[in-house]
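Q: Convert this sequence to structure tokens.
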Amino acid sequence: MSTDFVELNRWFAPIRRDQELNPEYGAHWGARLWEKSHQFRPMNEACKNAKIVPAIGFHGLRHTWASLSVMNGMPLLVVAKNLGHTDTRMVEKHYGHLAPSYVADAVRAGAPRFGTVQNTNVVSMGGV
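A:
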């Protein structure tokens, strides 16, 4: 795992914990009401302190976390749950292509198993 990925996970851990403890998390940050523009100043301040130019907003940070998580092999269901989705449809639509072996793994997991081919004494009849 990359250092950036580990740092983002460390940053999001308390948020995920709050989400699990508070089912109305979408509108709250701890005990305070989290309104539409409350993230603007803290994000700009954090970007300024981290020398991130141009500054990134909360949505961009959320998208970056999801992208890095999928690229690092986190299961899509886990990413979906951490983003607050009830299933993987949105994550598959927006991030599924970032999983290097997503399609191949899905086919392997769901394909029927026919067993192995036995050695045989049948010989081809010249190009047929």
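The longest helix spans residues 3-21.
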